[in-house]
Every structure is written in C-alpha cells, then in structure tokens.
C-alpha cells in the first residue's frame, strides 16, 4: 500500500472515529438528560402539537404547518439532486479537473483513482440525503391525512410517532449535508479531512444542544 493511500485511509478512519465518538457521547448524555438535545425537545413539542391539533379538530392549521415542513424538505431534496448531478459531471471531467486540483492541493500529487473514490463517497452521501428527505416528505404527506381524523379513529400517539420519525429523517438528511463538507475537503488531502471533521463536530455540539442547556451553560 502506497503512502498516499495509507494516509487517506488513516485520515478516513480517524474522521469516522471522531464522528462516532461524538454521537456516542450525545447518546449517553441524552440517557442522563432527555432534554439535552434540541431534537429531544422538538420531539416533545411534536407530540404535544399533534395531540392538540387532533383534540381541537384543527385539521386545516395542521395541514398548513405540515405543508411548510414539506416545502422545506422538498427544497433540500431537490438541492441534493442538483449536487448529485454536479458530482457526476465532475467525475466525468476528472482528467481536466485534477490538473487544477494538483495546484490547489497542499499535500502534492493527487492519485486519480483515489480522487474518484472520494467523489463516489460524496455521491453516496448526497444520495443518502435525498433518500432521507424523500422519506420525510412521504411520512408528512401521510400525517396530513391522519391528523384530520377524529382521535377515536386513529390515536394521536401513533400520528405523533410518525411525525417524530419524519423529523428524524429530516435530521439525518441535514447530517448528510453537514458531512459533505469534510468529504469535500478530503479531495484536497487527508489532513484537511481530519481538521474539517473536528470543526464540524465542534459546530454540531452547539447546534445539537437545546437552547435551555446552552443558555444555562452561558
């Protein structure tokens, strides 16, 4: 195994280890403090919102709110498709692009086959984002129908569980967008992959923390 392949392999392993360690920390922290993350707070709000909408028969208001969420997810899904097309276009012009990439790279020569592999991983990341946002849209479309029926027909807890799952899909799609940044920097070299991953985890630490916990820490 050549040195460029080994350095990229070590950097990729280190990047995955950093992200895994962060999410393990987040999972353990949520077990001790269920309201630590913004996602947990939003899930509580979604449950209360569904129960109120179905109890008060606010079907129109609920559908309008879901429509706004569907429009946001549709925007991100469409953007993912545009990025997928861009990545595919970039991969077909690798012989021309790599010449410029050699100049920008701080680590010297870039292996063409390794560069294409990195593009493939970036493509998989964007494809995953599209799938997650599509699933969020699918569930929210179903919820728009079920939330308008009487609570005696469909339990609000079931509808709330679907809404929470849709929110999880949306969060995973956004995570794919966030993880695209280290993958993009990886095209320039393994060191930038590790550095950008550390920066991303630092940003996620503040984004994932609930406003109440962030204000208390401040």
Summarize the structure.
The protein is mainly α. Helices cover 85% and strands 0% of the residues. It has helices spanning 3-32, 38-56, 59-92, 94-104, 112-146, 156-186, 190-208, 211-217.
Q: How would you describe what is shown here?
A:
- Helix 3 (59-92) packs antiparallel against helix 5 and helix 6 (156-186) runs antiparallel to helix 7 (190-208).
- By secondary structure, the chain is mainly α.
- The radius of gyration is 21 Å and the shape is flat.
- It has helices at 3-32, 38-56, 59-92, 94-104, 112-146, 156-186, 190-208, 211-217.
- It is built from eight helices and no strands.
- 85% of the residues lie in helices and 0% in strands.
- The protein has one domain.
Q: How far apart lie the N and C ends?
A: 48 Å
- SSE succession: HHHHHHHH
Strand content: under 5%
Which consecutive residue ranges, at least 5 long each, have pLDDT under 50?
none
* Number of individual domains: 1
User: What is the number of strand segments?
Assistant: 0
- Tally of individual helices: 8
The pLDDT mean sits at: 86
SSE arrangement:
Layout (H helix, E strand, L loop, with lengths): L2 H30 L5 H19 L2 H34 L1 H11 L7 H35 L9 H31 L3 H19 L2 H7 L1
List keywords for this structure.
single chain, 218 residues, mainly alpha, 8 helices
């Amino acid at each position: 195994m050549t040195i460029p392949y080994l350095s990229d392999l070590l950097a990729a392993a280190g990047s995955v280890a950093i992200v895994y360690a962060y999410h393990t920390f987040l999972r353990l922290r949520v077990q001790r403090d269920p309201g630590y993350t913004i996602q947990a707070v939003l899930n509580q709000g979604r449950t209360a919102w569904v129960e109120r909408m179905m109890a008060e028969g606010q079907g129109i208001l609920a559908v309008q709110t879901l429509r706004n969420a569907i429009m946001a997810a549709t925007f991100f899904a469409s953007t993912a498709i545009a990025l997928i097309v861009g990545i595919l276009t970039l991969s077909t012009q690798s012989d021309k692009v790599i010449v410029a990439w050699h100049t920008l790279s701080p680590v010297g020569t870039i292996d063409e086959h390794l560069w294409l592999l990195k593009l493939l991983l970036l493509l998989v990341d964007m494809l995953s984002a599209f799938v997650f946002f599509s699933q969020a849209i699918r569930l929210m479309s179903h919820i728009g129908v079920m939330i308008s029926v009487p609570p005696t027909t469909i339990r609000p807890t079931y509808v709330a569980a679907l809404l929470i799952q849709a929110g999880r899909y949306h969060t995973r799609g956004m995570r794919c967008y966030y993880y695209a940044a280290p993958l993009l920097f990886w095209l320039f070299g393994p060191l930038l992959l590790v550095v950008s991953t550390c920066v991303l985890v630092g940003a996620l630490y503040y984004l994932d923390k609930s406003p109440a916990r962030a204000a208390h820490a401040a």
